[in-house]
Specification:
Elements: H1 7-16, H2 18-25, H3 37-43, H4 59-69, H5 76-81, H6 103-109, H7 111-123, H8 134-143, H9 148-174, H10 181-199, H11 207-212, H12 214-218, H13 222-243
């Protein structure tokens, strides 16, 4: 590793070759014109304002999602390939038992997880179908927003979803704790809200404000959000008060 070289740029050079890594290590952000949009984003790690892996999520979560996109996490399928499971172990998904547990199925195509992603997209007002792989899912979430503040918030929610799904999977295997779609969705919202309070340079907000509209919170307009949420609460409970 060359002195002063960012760790991830060295990793990229080792993975994709010296010809790609040289401009990265020299501090440039150039990459071939034929490179995919995702590769251009990765090659700009830490540089400029382009789409990249700068996220307010904890570093261990960002590293985990990087490994996930490269299918380097210990799913049942990967453990079986490495002969790390007993020969009689089941490779089926811990939730649906209908497919082999690989990265794409566990985090995207399992029926319960797909429902969670659909509800999250409804929450952040995205409108696209469940993609065929995790790379495209990242592209959809990362490229759907142009505003820098909103993009940071969307990345945070995406990482919170990935981390919460993995923790729920481990709880199911090791602690025999089952969790339904609504509980998993709520845990993602709570975790992303906690990260928002501690890692985004934004005015403090209550959970009901974050739950109401995270986009407004990420823009820093909490006063507008509080006013809108107050009217919503009045609409829900105001009629009941008048009846008392």
């Amino acid at each position: 590793m060359q002195k002063g070289s960012p760790f991830w740029k060295v990793v990229l050079r080792e993975k994709y070759g010296v010809g790609v890594g040289v401009p990265l290590l020299s501090g440039g952000s150039t990459c071939p014109n034929y490179a995919s949009r995702w590769w251009k984003d990765v090659s700009n790690l830490g540089d400029g304002d382009g789409l990249n892996w700068k996220s307010p999520a904890p570093s261990k979560v960002v590293v985990f999602t990087w490994k996930l996109l490269h299918d380097r996490i210990p799913t049942k399928r990967n453990l079986a390939i490495r002969n790390s499971l007993p020969s009689d172990s089941s490779l089926e998904c811990v939730w649906c038992n209908n497919s082999v547990e690989d990265s794409t199925h566990l985090f995207l195509h399992c029926e319960g997880v797909s429902m969670v992603w659909c509800k999250l997209m409804e929450w952040v007002e995205f409108n696209f179908l469940i993609p065929p792989n995790l790379f495209i899912l990242w592209e959809c979430w990362n490229g759907a927003i142009l505003n820098k503040k909103l993009r940071r918030g969307v990345r945070l929610i995406w990482h919170a979803a990935i981390w919460s799904i993995w923790k729920a999977r481990n709880d199911r295997i090791f602690n025999n704790v089952d969790i339904d779609v609504e509980e998993l969705l709520e845990s993602i919202k709570v975790l992303s809200w906690r990260w928002c309070l501690g890692r985004l340079n934004l005015p403090a907000c209550l959970f009901y404000e974050w739950n109401w509209n995270p986009k407004i919170v990420c823009c820093g307009d909490v006063d507008l959000l509080g006013c809108a949420a107050s009217w919503w609460l009045f609409g829900c409970y105001g009629g009941a008060l008048f009846l008392l």
